[in-house]
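User: Thanks for the earlier help. One more: Purine permease. Can you show the sequence and predicted structure together?

Assistant: Of course, both are below.
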Amino acid sequence: MNNLLYQVDDRPPFLTTILLAAQHMLAALGGIIAVPMVIGAVLKLPADQIVALVNAALLGSGVVTFIQCKGVGPIGIRLPCVMGTSFAFVGAAITIGLEHGVPGILGCSLAGSAIMIVGSFFMPQIRKLFPHTVTAVVVTMIGLSLIPVAIDWAAGGKGAPNYGDPVNLGIALCVLVIVIALVQFGKGIISAAAIVIGMAIGYAGCVAFGLVDFTSVNKSAVFALPQVLQHGMTFPLGGIFAMSLAYMVTIVETTGTFMALGSATNTKMRGKLLCRGVLCDGVGSAFASVMGSPAVSTFAQNVGVISLTGVASRHVVALTGVFLVLAGLFPIIGALVVTIPQSVLGGAGLMMFAMILAAGVQMLANVEHNKRNGLIIAVSLGCGLAVSGRPELLAKLPAVFAEIFGSGISTGAIVAVVMNLLLPGREVEAHDDEVDTQAEQQEPPQPLLVKKAEAA
């Protein structure tokens, strides 16, 4: 069991909550902004359209994050879960966009979200495909897949002309050392806010040495209202199929992320919880599409923040959602955060993502040691690392293979699930339905609790 400073339903003091929420925002903002910028760059969209996509992504991610944490009726997992635009949809989005433009991307995202909405009602059955061995593999693969991202950040950003510059590596190392020191020796809020404090110190140092470019801040609008359906929508059948396939893969990845989140927050991840969480992913993606944003999904990197700081309060992350909405309404806020050098993010990110990997390794250590489980772990991790380390491996296969197996997380999860089903002596979660039924009988209706808490 993790030693949490704040449990899921705890409410830290207001100022503390603001600081901790900002910490989650800093961890997620780069990923949220990256997807619309990549899509815009490949499609060669005008600068104003890219800015509109970014603002819509921030706004949509913020609203769905708030709902995921607080819950609205049957929608929302009610755990500290940050939502954001996902790279799982980038391949399909670019393919659709090259032929049908942004309207095609948004229309196919809206239509494809039905796959996730319908799939959410089958999560108790899907949950049974993720016994402890499979879950341990997926959590480990999430950590292994994210660490190269942190390394690219620490080196200055993938594709940057100064990639690997000693200055970048030195900044990342300093931030990493500061975060480690604050977590290990800090007390209370100092330890809990180690990531944001470490990044703030690193950022201040970069500003002092003239390493921060404020051009984007000077060019950004102070305020921008969202425009519903500003790009319009089209619904090409081929694009809907491609996007639906991406949603199916995302269900697998999201399930794994929720499993990691359950481990980090000491929460039994039952089928009912998964249903609410995946339903929010689907409904949230539909909402984001209407607002002009690419589809959203659960962010794995913020699970690392929880593991590192011990802050599992869903109310903290709900405030992160509010901050993301403000960043969408006030583009200058997002522009200011984007000025944080990649190397500063890398120092903190390496620590966050390594914590997810450490959680996966701990889970693997608790797996029963036998030949069958050893095969599942070895083969699934090997296949996941193969496509993560050598994505060109799938280049000459039909596009559908790249959609399904393009992510190391989805590849590792699919291989682990299939091997667990096929090898003799299948491991199952036989008691899951009974646990769900008992929990429903024992727990008061959640929306009522939420209303009472909000009224208080």
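User: Great, one quick takeaway?

Assistant: Residues 14-222+235-451 form one domain.
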